[in-house]
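User: Please run a holo structure prediction.
Assistant: Happy to. Please share the sequence and the ligand.
User: Here you go; the ligand is sodium ion.
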Amino acid sequence: KQPVSIVKLKNMKENKDPITMVTAYDYPTAALVEQAGVDTILVGDSLGNVVLGYDSTLPVTIDDMVYHTRAARRGAPNTFIVADMPFMTYHSTVAETLNDVRRLMQEGHANAVKMEGGAEITLMVDACVKAGVPVLGHIGLTPQSVHQLGGYRIQGKTKEDADRLLQDALALERAGAFAIVLELVTDQVAAYISERLSIPTIGIGAGAGCDGQVLVFHDIVRFSPDYREKRFVKTYADIGTTIREGIQSYVQDVKTRAFPAEVNSFRAEDNVVEHLYG
Ligand code: KIV
Ligand code: NA
């Protein structure tokens, strides 16, 4: 299987074939996501929340992103991988921005990068595109700006806000973005922006009018010690509970000496070397 290209993604929009994107941050999750047949993987800075235990994406560093992108790539060698540029890494000079983009591509083996923001970041988007790097835009609720936005709120509720979102989307398209994530945008506004753009939109909490959908892996399968319901998520498995119960059973078996059993143990005449690791 070949990874999709940005040309294929645009064709998918034209053919009304919804684009699927799921986050992954390490080898086994990326491998399982690739095996499940997803179109694109996002190594999101949501890893700060869901795998590093921070309460926002702000503490995530470029070193974190490179490390996790490399691990995800080892699991998903045949999937188009987008890596997030972390907080404040694309706001000073073009040279500094391009160096971090280079690291995600060259050390992390990403196919593309994502940046949050609209018209104000088009200088950086344009510089990346000119350097040959596909850029995924991201507007609406942009978690790296949570302190400026005053919380995780729905975007596009007023006419002015909707107009600004459309202008930002068009500016990103002009700057060469290959697609745009719309996060927590009212469904009418997201559908309107999707119609007005020639590049695909990928929604999260932005309704069915987007050209694709993205969700966080840990939300889809409830991989969290304290999963909280979110209206824009649909969960398809509960591996948090499965893991907790599995570990509880293991602990109980050790305490009661039910594990290891005879089949898990070795005798001198056994020759199990080739099966030692399953
Ligand atoms: O970091 C992330 O997972 C994201 C998606 C929610 C779009 O940016
Ligand atoms: Na992100």
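The longest strand covers residues 135-140.
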